[in-house]
């Protein structure tokens, strides 16, 4: 089937894929921050914070698949993997913008969250007996990240770099989605 | 051998190489320049937990992604560049999708088993499982660009 001439717009699918990725990665990230900020500092805290995040990884990757599946099923069409890559690329880039907006809005709603999160993470690292040099490095990294997250230039750079990386990985998953859900095979 | 859809193949190849180099993190550029390109970590913060003890190090600095993720990105890049050769393998789409789903489940099972202390995975086992997953993604496209 040739859909080149009359291909419907894919922007709804891009927005749905991007919003799903941003809400889940942003939402799980915020829930995790509340957990860390509110929990008693301990080894468990470090483990939970480290192992909850892989769940968000998966959702960061599947934006391209969600968008291409939605596009193919909604309009009952087939399309090329090149178009799947484009849909995935746009989904990843838009998701990076949405995720930043969500996290920045939340930081305005609850500015103490970030403070408590970092304090508890540092305290937990001290409690588990991390070597001093490693602890200093980790604290320096956290301070650097935190300073970046609060400056306009840092936020813009964060969006740009996230859009590039999320765009590329979701372009690949967009091709997977096109191959599985929109292929003529 | 015929080579079709060249623009897409080359664009994805370049993107995969760029992604892999970025994923290696600031340590790739040596310790003295690393602090200037610390933002590389930001690029993967929505995609990877980036825990230092679960990542390989370059110049004493953790890569921008964990050992599983570097396996995925590295193997996808290698697999994609090797597609001219992988195109000789004749596997149905159904089997390729089966492999992909199986490896996703295997990786999730590995994360879950480690989480509940059923077993302890290592940098190497995570790298190996990630490598298989990355390769299976590239293999999905082995009949798209090159035909014999």
Observed structural traits:
heterodimer; A: 185 residues; B: mainly alpha; two-stranded antiparallel sheet; 7 helices; 57% helix
Characterise this structure.
The complex is a heterodimer of chains A (185) and B (148). In chain A, 40% of the residues are buried. Chain A contains seven helices and no strands. Chain B starts with a strand and ends with a strand. The radius of gyration of chain B is 17 Å and the shape is flat. At the A-B interface, helix 2, helix 4, helix 6 and helix 7 of A face helix 1, helix 3 and helix 6 of B.
Question: What's a concise summary of this model?
Answer:
The complex is a heterodimer of chains A (185) and B (148). Chain A is mainly alpha-helical.
Helix content of chain A: over 70%
Largest sheet entry of chain A? none
The secondary-structure element order of chain B is: EHHHEEHHHHE
Q: Count the DSSP helices of chain B.
A: 7
How many DSSP H or I helices of chain A? 7
The largest contact between protein chains, plus residue counts on each side, is: A-B, 38 and 37 residues
Coarse shape of chain B:
flat
Runs of chain B in which pLDDT lies below 50 for 5 or more consecutive residues are none
Shape of chain A: elongated
The figure for the number of domains of chain B is 1
- Give helix and strand order of chain A, one letter per element, not per position: HHHHHHH
Mean pLDDT of chain B: 90
Sheet-strand content of chain B, in percent, reads: 5-15%
Residue ranges of chain A: pLDDT <50 for 5 or more in a row? none
**How many runs of DSSP E, i.e. beta strands of chain B?**
4
Specify the structural class of chain A.
mainly alpha
Extended strand count of chain A: 0
Distance between the termini of chain A: 12 Å
């Amino acid at each position: 089937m040739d859909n080149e001439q009359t291909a419907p717009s894919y922007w709804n699918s891009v927005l749905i894929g991007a919003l799903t990725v941003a809400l889940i990665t942003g939402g799980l990230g915020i829930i995790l921050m509340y957990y860390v900020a509110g929990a008693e500092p301990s080894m468990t805290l470090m483990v939970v914070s480290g192992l909850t995040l892989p769940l968000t990884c998966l959702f960061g990757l599947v934006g391209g698949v969600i968008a291409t599946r939605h596009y193919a099923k909604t309009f009952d069409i087939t399309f090329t993997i090149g178009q799947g890559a484009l849909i995935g690329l746009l989904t990843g880039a838009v998701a990076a913008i949405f995720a930043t907006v969500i996290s920045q809005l939340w930081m305005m709603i609850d500015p103490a969250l970030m403070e408590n999160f970092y304090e508890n993470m540092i305290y937990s690292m001290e409690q588990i007996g991390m070597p001093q040099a490693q602890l200093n490095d980790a604290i320096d990294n956290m301070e650097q990240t935190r300073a970046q997250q609060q400056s306009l230039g840092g936020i813009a750079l964060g969006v740009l770099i996230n859009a590039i990386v999320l765009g590329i990985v979701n372009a690949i998953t967009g091709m997977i989605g096109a191959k599985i859900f929109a292929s003529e095979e | 051998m015929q080579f079709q859809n060249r623009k897409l193949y080359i664009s994805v190849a370049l993107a995969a190489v760029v992604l892999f180099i970025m994923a290696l993190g600031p340590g790739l550029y040596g310790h003295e320049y690393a602090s200037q390109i610390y933002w590389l970590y930001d690029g993967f913060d929505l995609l990877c937990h980036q825990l230092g003890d679960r990542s390989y190090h370059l110049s004493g600095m953790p890569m921008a992604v964990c050992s599983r993720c570097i396996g995925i990105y590295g193997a996808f890049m290698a697999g994609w560049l090797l597609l001219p050769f992988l195109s000789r393998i004749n596997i149905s789409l159904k089997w390729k999708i089966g492999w992909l789903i199986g490896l996703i489940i295997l990786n999730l099972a590995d994360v879950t088993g480690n989480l509940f202390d059923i077993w302890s995975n290592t940098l190497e086992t995570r790298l190996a499982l990630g490598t298989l997953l990355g390769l299976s993604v590239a293999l999905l496209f082995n009949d798209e660009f090159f035909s014999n």
